[in-house]
Structures are given as structure tokens and as C-alpha cells.
Amino acid sequence: MKNFFSALLWFLVLFLVAHFVQYYFVDRYCGICHNAADKQIEQVDLKTPPQKLAAFMISDIEGNVLFEFPTGFVVKATDSEIKIPESMNSFKDSIYKYLNENQDKELLISAKYLKSEGEPKGLDRANFLKRILTNMGLNEQRIIPKAVLSDYNYDEYGEYGDGIAMLFQNIPEEAIDAIEKSIAHKTLYAKFGTKEFKADATLQAYAYELKSYLSKHPDKNVLVIGHTDNIGNSEANKKLGLERAQNVVVYLTNQGIAIEHIKADSKGESEPIASNDTKEGRAKNRRITINVN
After folding, report:
1. Helix, coil or strand: residue 179
2. Which of 4, 61, 163, 262 could cross-link to 169 by cystine, CB 3.0-4.6 Å?
3. d(CA 110, CA 124)
4. Residue 226 to residues 70, 93, 111: CA-CA distances in angstroms?
5. Which domains does the chain have, with CATH numbers?
């Protein structure tokens, strides 16, 4: 019996020692290590938000920031179309207004491309944005596309958020003659109806250019000629063409062009530039031509 109690006593002592070691050396200290490791794993597993795209700025040649947007354009690996974030929707109006108010400036659009893509890819990207601006009525000769060879990586979606740059710069002397020629001989396609006449963006932009041109050439005169398709009576069409031309004259004089330097005329249906047998051809014939001499 004595041996039994002695063995039981030793068993209890060893049990307490084992429990003490478990608590202080394994659970207490090594447990700290495990907890720290678990926290580190949790931190690694947390998904960080996608990197925020850098702000997009349009500056002048002196480095002055004229317009700033929260994010920039996005170029794609699959094609030459440019993704325009919603935060940049106003870029067109900003450029339109600036170029109209600064007739001595032009916009340089630079688009990056990879060596594997080729220079035409960069030009296509720049021209994609140019078309958006010229469709608003801006003179295409004042928007210069440029391709820039670069080295960058597309993200997992095949996109890159820093592929476009824009800069306002002075119009080079050698380009001024071509631009002035386009101002002196202009063809406008718009809704020049006699009722509820409203100048579209193309006519508005042209008014800025014409006014600036005439300030440099005060001896020049402007002739606005209305043209129609052949639907209806020829005399009625000549009258309609004149009314449309007069609408344009009124608008231009309201923009500050001296009335003594501008007059309206009409050719009616007599000078078509396309076939009147098709809807598209008739639309081309319904136009306003403006000549400055």
C-alpha cells in the first residue's frame, strides 16, 4: 500500500510539472509567436485597394497647369480606343474654350506606344482623341497628334493609365499660313434652317477664328453663301439658301464682326458638290461656304 501511495504521489508531481511547462513555456511564450505569425498572415491576406491613377494635367509650354483632372486617360492593349473616365468628361469643353479664347495656341496630344506595337498604334491613339475634339468644331489644324515610343506594362486587364499627355503650345510660324487659309475658305455643315436658328459648336468655334483673323487683316471682306439640295423649286431653293446665309451673317455680326465687312448670298441648288440622288449627297449639298477676300 505504501508503494502505491508513493507512486501516486510521484504521478501527481510529474503531472503538475508537465502542466507548468505547458503553460509557461509553450502556451505562454510560443503562443505569442503563433499569434504574431497569425496576425502577419492576416495582414498579408488583406486585399489592398487598387492603386489610384495619377491626376491628369494639361499645361502650357511654360509649365503652367491650366486644367487638372482626378484621373487620366486609359490606353488599351487590344485596340487604339481610349477609355475616358467619368471624372474627365469635361476635358472637351475645357480645351474647346481655351483654344477659342487663345487663337495663337494649338494642342499637342502625345500618345505612348510600345516598340512591339509600332508607331502607328501611338498615332491612332492620339488621333482618337483628336477626332473627339474636331467633332466639336475645333480646327483640326490646331490639334497635333504625336506618337511617343515608351516602355511600360499593361495591367492584368490589358490597360495602362499614363499613356496620354496634352500640352498647349504656340502655333509655329510655318503653320499659321495653312490655318489662315482654312479660315478664309470654310465650309460648314449644320442645321441652318430659318426657324429657331441656333449656332452649333462648329460655327461658334469658327466665329472666334474669323474674328481673330479679321483683326489681323482689317481690309478683308467676308462673303457667306448658302447652298441647298435640289428638292423643291429652284427659285425657292435660292431664297432658302439666302435665308440660311443671312442667319449666319447675323450670328457672326453678333459676335463682333463688323457688318460692313460681311454680306450674304445664295447659289441655291446650282452648285452641288455631291449627287442629289442620295440622302447623303443631298446632305453634303446643304451647306454654307464662307470666303474671305
Report:
1. helix
2. 61
3. 11
4. 45, 29, 40
5. 56-171 (3.30.1330.60), 177-292 (3.30.1330.60)
